[in-house]
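Request: Have a read of the protein record below and say how the chain folds.
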Amino acid sequence: MKKVFGYVLSLLAALTFAGVIATTANAAGSNAVATSGSGSGVTSSVVSSSSSKKVAKKATKKTVKKSKRVQLSKKYKKNARKVYVKKAAKGSSIALKNSKKQSVKKFAVKKNGKKTLSLTKKQAKKLNKGKKFTMTVTKKGYKAYTVKVTIK
């Protein structure tokens, strides 16, 4: 009876040990396969996952074709309070910055097509510091791009 009880306890200890190894391996983010060996002990093997390939695919973003990039539909004149944008894509956001890289206005596009960005007097004055300003366009899943605009 003591021998049977001893075998049961050793089997229980071996299974508990294998469970602990499998649990810690899964908590670390990899797959674990625990197999019981014949006789004396338990062996476990850890299979590494290919998560690095998945991360690389997520990091790559599409680029917007040059024919579909945001443009100005009218030339911007100095101290003008409106910026006329065409080819704006739904879901993108446009940030206007002056030549000193200071943010002037951010705008989210809700519908495709032409948009008119209205500026306050203070924003127009801030935008006109220098001879050019930039429009940075960002959209989820795409690389951000910058359009340089000359002030007439």
